[in-house]
Amino acid sequence: MTAGASFSQQLESHTDAYLDCFKACIDLLPELLDQYAAGEDYSATIEEIEDLESECDDRNLQIVALITNADPIDMGKLNTRINYNQSALVEFYRTIDVVVNVTERIAHELDMMQPPHDNACFEGLREMATEVADTTELLEEVIERFVHDLSTYEASDSLTDEIQGIRDMESRCDELRNEVITTAFADDSIDQPLMYREFAILFDELANQMEDITEEIIIVASNAPGIVAEEGPEDQ
Description:
Number of helices: 8
Low-confidence stretches: none
Number of strands: 2
CATH class: Mainly Alpha
Structural class: mainly alpha
Organism: Halapricum hydrolyticum
Order of helices and strands: HHHHHHEHHE
InterPro entries: PhoU-like_sf (IPR038078), Put_Phosphate_transp_reg (IPR018445)
Largest sheet: 2 strands, parallel
Pfam family, one: PhoU_div
Mean pLDDT: 90
Number of domains: 1
CATH superfamily: Phosphate transport system protein phou homolog 2, domain 2
Shape: elongated
Family: Belongs to the UPF0111 family.
CATH architecture: Up-down Bundle
Keywords: Coiled coil
């Protein structure tokens, strides 16, 4: 096995393992809100989110170390796409990890602030959590394909439809955020509207971070001919 092939396989394998716990962490968010709204004990779910966030941190550090410690010889001649985008890839993986960090923060804020859950504002937050979790599967596919494309000599792929789907989700979350905040301050029956505003902004940050991941992909793809992540003016 050549050095380049070994490096590619390691990068894909580490990324796949990372994405497994990444998706598992985000998928717990709607479940956490459902348990909280039902008055159930949700402490085990928060602990699981914490454990997954820590595992993601560890795996992300391994991936970043793999990329930063490799030189062109380690990567091999067939991995020029990775070699030429080394710094951008490090930033890409760090951006991915912010999503699980925000997920853990939301879990802690929910436990500490204990917002009333029998109102339209909380329902809006649940919708945002579901929207983000539903999009995670699509985001996982995009990242897996993107890393595989980078690791495969002269691979050709288009990610534009999937990236647009993630952008559409972010736009829907913007709308839900605005609805939650507007309702919180317009409805006199809502106690502590600032609390719901803070939660809405946190959930929206999750969606924004997912879109930021696609922006990082676009940056790297622009320097990797054959990988199309954004339509040019002539394609629109």
